[in-house]
Amino acid sequence: MTLLWQDHRHNAAVYQVSSRRWTVQRAGEIIGDYRLTGETFDPDLPPEPVLTITGSDAGTLDTWLRFIPPQYGISRLRLRDRIIDTAFFQPVLPELRDAELSLHCTRRDAPDIARGFTACDYFDLFISGKRAGSCSLRTGYHPSLMVNGHIGYTVFPAFRGHHYAARAVRLLLTHARTWNMPEVSICCVPENAASRRTCEIAGLSFDGIFDIPMEHALYTQGKRQFCRYRIDLT
Question: What is the pTM of this model?
Answer without folding.
Answer: 0.67
